[in-house]
Amino acid sequence: MLLIRCPYCEEERPELEFRNAGEAHIARSANMAGESDDDFEKFFFIRSNPKGIIYERWRHMHGCARFFNAVRDTVTDKFVMTYKAGEPKPSKLPKNSNEVVAK
Amino acid sequence: MAKAAAKTAATASSSAERRPALAGRSTSATGVKVEVLPPAERMSLRAPEASLAALSKALGVTLPKAPKTSASKAGRTALWLGPDEWLVIDEAGKDPLADCAGVSALHSSVGVSHRNIAISVAGPAAEAAINSGCPQDLSLVAFPVGAGSRTILGKVEIVLLRTAEDAFRVECWRSFSDYVFTFLSEGARDAAG
Amino acid sequence: MKKYSVFAIAREAMRGHKGWEEQWSSPEPKKEYDVIIVGAGGHGLATAYYLATEHGITNVAVLEKGWLGGGNTGRNTTIIRSNYLYDESAGIYDHALKLWDGLSQELNYNVMYSARGVMMLAHNVHDIQVLKRHVHANRLNGIDNEWLSPEQAKEFCPPLNISKEARYPVVGAALQRRGGTARHDAVAWGYARGASARGVHIIQNCEVTGVKRAANGAVMGVETSRGFIGAKKVGVVAAGHSSVIMNMAGVRMPLESYPLQALVSEPVKPVVPCVIMSNTVHAYISQSDKGELVIGAGTDQYVSYSQTGGLHILQHTLDAICEMFPIFTRMKMLRSWGGIVDVTPDRSPILAKTPVPGLYVNCGWGTGGFKATPGSGNVFAHTIARDDPHPINAPFTIERFRTGRLIDEAAAAAVAH
Amino acid sequence: MSGAFRIPAAGRLKQAKTARFSFDGQSYAGVEGDTLASALLANGVHLVGRSFKYHRPRGVLSAGAEEPNALVQIVRDDARKTPNVRATVQELYDGLAANSQNRWPSLSFDVSAVNDLASPLFSAGFYYKTFMWPKAAWKSLYEPKIREAAGLGISPDRPDPDHYSSRYAHCDVLVLGGGAAGIAAALAAAETGVSVILADEQAKFGGSLRFESGAMIDGQDGFAWAQAAVAKLAAMGNVRVLSRTTAFGYYAQNFVGLVERVSDHLKAPGHDLPRERLWQVRAKRVMLASGAIERHMVFANNDRPGIMLAGAARTYLNQYGVAVGRNVGVYTANDSAYAAAIDLKKAGVNVAAIVDLRDNPTGPVIDEARALGIEINFGRAVIRAGGKLRVSSMTVQPKNGGGERTIPVDAILMSAGWTPSVHLFSQSRGKVAFNDETKRFVPGTYAQDCVSVGACNGTDGLSATLDEAYAAGAKAAKDAGAKDASTKTGKGAKPKVDASESWSRGMLGAAPGAGPDTTVKAFVDFQNDVTAKDIRQAVHEGMRSIEHVKRFTTNGMATDQGKTSNMHGLAIAAETLGKPIPEVGLTTFRAPYTPVTFGAIVSHARGPLFDPTRKTAIHPWAEAQGAVFEDVGQWKRAWYFPKAGEDMHKAVDRECVAVRNKAGLFDASTLGKIEVVGPDAAKFMELLYTNPWEKLEPGRCRYGIMLREDGFIYDDGVVGRLAPDRFHVTTTTGGAPRVMNHMEDYLQTEFPHLNVWLTSITEQWAVIAVQGPKSRDIIAPLVEGIDMSDEALPHMSVREGKICGVPTRLFRMSFTGERGFEVNVPADYGQAVWEALWAEGQKHGATAYGTESMHVLRAEKGYIIVGQDTDGTVTPNDAGLDWAVGKKKADFVGIRGLMRPDLVAKGRKQLVGLKTKDPKVVLEEGAQIVEDPKQPIPMKMIGHVTSSYWSENCGRSIALALVTGGRDRMGDTLYVPMPNGVIEVEVTGMVFFDETGGRLNG
Which chains touch B (3 or more CB pairs under 8 A)? Predict the structure, then answer.
């Protein structure tokens, strides 16, 4: 069971309180109806599925109920950092993170 | 035909009987007592930062802004559940919903008095009893008196409030109350051992 | 290849079993092959085997970053069945099931395919609707699947708890008698031996690090931890790592990889005679020939390549097992482990050509790929050899996610109303 | 007397009470504090089990959790039979009853031992090479025989009356292992004031101090020091001490699973005591002090009962006062076995000879053994053991060959050296490193916040161990946040070692006499009957990875998980491959460290706590009325209300007719309910549902459809607008939680600019549907403050007011096609209001109806059930609900998905009605539909029946079905082939009753 730092609760809490919500930073188009089939496929189906650093969404379902983002290494399952929903994808990761940086 | 039914009936009886779930249930083990608490008024309050002053004033209790905390005054407790979410519990019979009705500042107040039921877990072994199914660190350092949080007990969600060093209030949804009470009873039996 | 038989064993017994030949050779990689298969799991080795036996293509290398059969092939709970709902799924899984029956003789390797029956339990009205839909569709597709009452289910599996007092009482079951289990290692080893004997190179400890493409986009070969190996056709059969390899070729996939755990108990005398599955209480159980209860758990909720998972996942699984079989609480978990399963949005595999000429992919089997091993390898070999899918795997394209023509077995199980 | 082999002056159980026990029906006496193994050995019983494959007789090998041989079935009563219990771990209690396993008819005469004679045939992996002819024989003959022979104990056959419990715990420092290292580490950490948990798998702390007679710490005997130190720790407020507690799994982020055996050692456990308790501990720092496990010597017939690990024999002597023989031989490749020989000799046991593989070792223990007059043979090997049910001799030969000499013995103590227990370290994803000098894998690179101390870290000698552990304990405390570890040491002091033992080295692999040129049975893995030659054979057959060797031979896969065998197996494989050991690599260590009962892992989640059973406020009334309930998700819903003599069909027919002719009451409380509040509420609804909402007037309702982004129907329900900024949304029963999550997801992450909030009110409101022509007459008398006229309260509207004096949200809506209402009242009033409505209803002939009638009534009207008539692949258009999709809307979730080529293509499956040609025939839900019933199998199926019922109101059967191009087939005849014949059906519209809808106002 992972231990996840909720950026709203400002502490680490057990995974049982959380629900993973898939890859982060996949924006829904403001003009959804105008998207091409290819774009829609990319938006809804295609995923990075990285071996290494992943940017992903979690919801503190049984805590503060907020969605937030996390950076995690999918090889070690270690969290690099978490940050609030709506905050931009970090351009730089903290030093303790693995050197496997996402493209 | 429509006319006949149009008028409000005069036969509307006096108030229907309230039958809370699990009313009166309790169990004791060495060092811990698990007991269903009487009904209370409850409100789920949602509001942005800017509305908090006005809402606090109306409620008579300052809405806490720090995670995992609560504030209490005159039988009314406001638990921080999320950055824009509070559970207001009034055990003094005053409806917080009515108090917020006149507040024009942006907010959402929804009555949930009947949605939840409360169970008291008290005694030196209370912490251990709850930790039978709650994965949070409930030591006094991590979860001091007044700390409140939504969390998990076994397979269901609860709201946990520490009311004293050796006492907790466990709130859960009505239909989960039997499960929660049974779980806490088992936890209490084991914590006593 | 020296034939295995009871006489061979007797002969070897006389000389201390020192005369057995290697089951597969371990050659150094050549500079170039006609076909490279990435991944020496069951599906990859079966592909190589059928390339050799059915298409006469033997200049094949199967590249494996670890040891052959060490991925999901050696980590799954070996359930075999073909009672899927949709024609497309039924087609490929039943193709596999027909190959399972006779595979030991085909490979001259006892894969211990055991048609002990797979029973799927219904616990409520909705389950009945869903399972009966399967039973009827299967019947018209020529696939055996029959409906049982709770009493019949118990007769078929005596330790099953069918008490009406259970939290989710058993209200019926669908039984596929041809379903069962097989010995997972033997499947990988049998195919490896068969392929190796026909000239296929199985190269272990050889990790693919890049896919090289020509100016026209076509595949030229792969970079590996043991140097560049050329091939005009590359088949990616890397299970949880498929999207990693496909990314090397510049193809982004509709895949996510999750940890999937399983466990076995200590061995006991025969007690569970068949395979039992319950979607509603989330449990899968059978008993191995060795006597261990073999239990499949659920996936963790997050993408991971760690081959480990949380204890709470095993707890939920064993909750369910002990609910169905209250006699098992005193049994002990002996070993637990994790695999990495690659899951598509519609829970059906991708077994197809790709936008890259010469690149083929066989992935997305999720939690249920083992049962498809012979069929999957068979039609994938066809797809590579002919550069054209076999009719059986033609629906399992990558493009279906763009067009919306999904094969959504998971959705068909729907959710409670 | 507690056994002829008990030495009165030895051991620590001198004052213990007698405990009677039985083994295979034979009664014996032991003492409290014994393990079953020590008690058996005290009685001279060495033969305790049979091996897995060859059914060879086996004795006790060890004195701990690594035991591969001494597995027994413990029988407390008919329901408490536990298979595969290690006799070396099971504590004795008065009345304990144990049976041997895997033998027939008896332990000393086992018919299956014929396997041993045929063992040349049963070589490694033989089953992959045979049993293939004839094909059918695998299933009918070979496999059943193999299964019968396999397995060890017997599964319980009754539900377990014992209970199990669990506890989550957090601490600063978790110390795993309570030997000298663990105790010292715990002392150092605890003295800083941080929270500490110290756990050990044994009943008594001390680890190897239990047998190391030479250890002196702080002026006292090592074992006594351990007891005193642990007592001191247990008395500290910041320390929890757990004995009989095994750390079995080390998971991510310092999360450790442990099992405490609470009552298996008790004669009569109290009813309140769990059998076992699962601890799930999250620690800031973990200290691994798990010690080392002794290896056996790999030589011919090394499995004969009476042959055991030297350390074990020493434990039996020094802890339990038991001599494992009267005339013992010793076979060793390191110093530690000398200590065992010395202790036994001093206790009066004859030591026939020590056989030491080493050429000319020197050291104090060797000198002492010699001084005691023990015969020592250097540079020699035991090449075989004699005896069958008990060892009777050992045959010794110079290790490079030469004359043999057979020495009579009744026990052989062996030691090939000690393997550090890196299991938990490895589970933590740490990488082990091979020390070439000591031939050990020790912790190399750490992956988590943990540290290894003592023997599991390859640290030799008590003094070095205590130094290392004490310092590491203090550091761990500091790292975990102790204020300042150095200032606190005043409280305690580092334990001082006054005398200690020290040994290391040893050998790996087959001993001389069991080498590649031999065909002897020299066991590597006892339980699975894996010999050195099996491992060599695997390598010869091309198994070059140690994982292949393991799987092919099953080495290390028995219930002991290779604790004594893995290193030997690896060494033999490496030797055969001609590669250094680290290049061949170690197999993965997987949880659990030792087997864990399912019960402990499940703990509370059994019976009523397996899964919550959700009941509505009205449930008690329905139960009292004799309702039959169905499971819908976690809810129990009233399915139908049979009257005396009615079966389900009769009850449903009656209920359905009553609703259409009079009225019916239905408990709809389980439907999900969400209150959507805020100035942007309507905007939000526009985005989440396909329908338009902005123009819906307060007080009115609308049927809403929710899609996933891919365009398929996700949920549906009636939504009432209570105020411009307030909606009361209903969802399906099963969909409630995921719909809420779906809405929160979009609100928080895609549309955070909207000022709107969502609150689940499913359980706030009990919902009583009152449906039928008399519905208004029933409700009206009880209502205050709501005008119930059709003008004021038309179909699809909602009002707030009072009923029976309590607040209500009164919906005028219908899921039956009749005039209907849904009365929402606060849940605690639900039953009283229901009873009031029921009483009123009785005046009008109303009935209570359940979910089955609800399904029939809605099907008569062609109303769909999401999840039954749709299955996650159905669009609104497919379901005939295109009218509910706002055509002018610029955006809603699912808008783009709906446009995908396949979703707008012709020939999609569409929901239609079906009427059987024979109105009495009711189709089966899930039945498949074809155009041509005469086609051969596989048939082309064009759809399936989603809903099907007998409709008493229509006087015929009715059905809904998803059919390819269904709406273009109106009036067509299609076929439903069933096992017992083909059913002819006609494609129709979906409305079977009151097509004009007049009854909504009837």
Answer: A, D
